[in-house]
Amino acid sequence: MNVEISEVANLPTKFGDFKIQAFKELLSNGCFKEHLAIFTDPIPETPVVRVHSECLTGDALGSRKCDCGEQLEFALHMIQSQGGMVIYLRQEGRNIGLLNKVNAYALQDRGLDTVAANHQLGFSADERTYEMVETILAHFEIEKIRLLTNNPKKIESLEGIEIVERLPIIVEANPHNITYLQTKKEKMGHLF
């Protein structure tokens, strides 16, 4: 994997003070994606780690159609208190991109769930990959983690990392995301 790594910088936030480092992944088609590691200093021997895929609408705009923004905030609070890292992967819309995500939103407005909307657009239910996670953890010489996730695909995908504990992310449902959360549980096997 061809990766360029930035310097480490301070990142004071409303959740506390963190460090941040960027990882620029060169893709086989000549394009690239830039991912982030947001972490406490020091990082514990067995840190809490949240693998979070980018969700512009949830993370930055506060969309209530998903639980992504709330999950990110939950993770940053926990990592600040217990020590660890958020690995922020640039995989918008389960890696279908922002344009296709908005098209999927429009299909959801017409009654499709998130999985059916992705299929209607020609994608699988979840196009994300997690190879970059192992690259980032190896950079920090982290071999075992406490993984903060409800997604069994993330657990299965991290073959080279010892997951000593899975920590659930518990956020409140709202009238706009209840179907989304049910679909994640029933069609994608999320652990709630």
TrEMBL record:
Q: Which UniProt keywords apply?
A: GTP-binding, Hydrolase, Metal-binding, Nucleotide-binding, Riboflavin biosynthesis, Zinc
Q: In which pathway does it act?
A: Cofactor biosynthesis; riboflavin biosynthesis; 5-amino-6-(D-ribitylamino)uracil from GTP: step 1/4
Q: Which Pfam families match?
A: GTP_cyclohydro2 (PF00925)
Q: How is the cofactor bound?
A: Binds 1 zinc ion per subunit.
Catalysed reactions, semicolon-separated: GTP + 4 H2O = 2,5-diamino-6-hydroxy-4-(5-phosphoribosylamino)-pyrimidine + formate + 2 phosphate + 3 H(+)
CDD domains, per the entry: GTP_cyclohydro2 (cd00641)
**Binding site residues for GTP:** 50-54, 71, 92-94, 114, 149, 154
All residue ranges annotated as the GTP cyclohydrolase II domain in the record:
8-168
List ligand-binding residues for Zn(2+): 55, 66, 68
Cofactor(s) the record lists = Zn(2+)
Gene3D superfamilies referenced in this protein's UniProt entry, alphabetically: GTP cyclohydrolase II
Q: What is its EC number?
A: 3.5.4.25
Active site (catalytic residues): 126, 128
Kindly give the NCBIfam families that the UniProt entry links to this protein. PRK00393.1 (NF001591), ribA (TIGR00505)
Q: Which family does it belong to?
A: Belongs to the GTP cyclohydrolase II family.
The free-text function statement in the UniProt record for this protein reads:
Catalyzes the conversion of GTP to 2,5-diamino-6-ribosylamino-4(3H)-pyrimidinone 5'-phosphate (DARP), formate and pyrophosphate.
Q: Which HAMAP family match?
A: RibA
What is the protein name given in its UniProt record? GTP cyclohydrolase-2
**Native species:** Hydrogenimonas cancrithermarum
The encoding gene is ribA_1
